[in-house]
């Protein structure tokens, strides 16, 4: 699965698709000018689910599952989400850093053995605090750090629907599995308010 050509890119764009029973997302390879290139995954999030379970599919028909993100617990104060193959084999973990998130949203990207790969944090402390106080949909901007250096970013693009752009050009040794990166991109939108 790692050699899947969908996930060889260093940039992705996430577009939310509005549907009545579920949140749907389309993840595309990033084209010049932040435009959407070829789709790499379609994601379904059930609304009002007791335990988060995001499914990533190869196309809109949802006939071929690529991987999934599932909460470890129903009540997830710390927020640990396993990223697994359809057969349940874990290849990564996304963990909300609760203490840091009180001021500035922070996530850890871990490998299958819970070893740290990267940390993702809101770039601006002032914007993060203002967003919490005023409760208006400001444009998010996250920095992706690996071993203390910035290897990428995620930014929300001004649009009527949720749209994000992720770049990982600084991750030249491909430390972060691009499937994990795509999972993180969706989680940042789908679970941000929880």
Ranges with pLDDT <50 over ≥5 residues?
none
Total count of helical runs of at least 4 residues: 3
CA-atom Rg in angstroms: 15 Å
Order of strands in the sheet with the most strands?
1-2-3-4-5-6-7-8-9-10-11-12
Average the pLDDT over all residues and give the rounded result. Answer: 87
Order of helices and strands: EEEEEEEHEEHEEEH
* Count of individual beta strands: 12
| Proportion of helical residues | 10-25%
Question: What general outline do the C-alpha atoms trace?
Answer: globular
**Helical/strand content category:** mainly beta
Distance between the termini: 30 Å
Major sheet description: 12 strands, antiparallel, barrel
What attributes does this structure have?
single chain; 194 residues; mainly beta; twelve-stranded antiparallel barrel; 3 helices; 14% helix; globular
């Amino acid at each position: 699965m790692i050699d899947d050509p969908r996930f060889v890119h260093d940039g992705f764009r996430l577009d939310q698709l509005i549907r009545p029973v579920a949140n749907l997302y389309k993840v595309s390879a990033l084209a010049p000018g932040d435009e959407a290139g070829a789709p790499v995954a379609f994601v379904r999030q059930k609304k009002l689910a007791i335990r988060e379970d995001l499914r990533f599919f190869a196309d809109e028909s949802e006939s071929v599952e690529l991987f999934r993100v599932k909460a470890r617990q129903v009540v997830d104060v710390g927020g640990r989400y396993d990223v697994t193959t359809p057969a349940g084999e874990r290849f990564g973990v996304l963990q909300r850093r609760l203490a840091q998130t009180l001021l500035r949203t922070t996530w850890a990207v871990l490998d299958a053995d819970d070893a740290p790969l990267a940390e993702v944090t809101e770039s601006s402390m002032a914007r993060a605090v203002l967003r919490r106080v005023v409760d208006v949909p400001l444009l998010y901007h996250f920095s992706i750090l690996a071993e203390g250096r910035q290897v990428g970013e995620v930014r929300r693009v001004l649009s009527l629907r949720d749209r994000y752009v992720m770049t990982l050009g600084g991750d030249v040794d491909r430390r972060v599995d691009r499937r994990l990166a795509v999972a993180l991109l969706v989680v940042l939108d789908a679970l941000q308010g929880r």
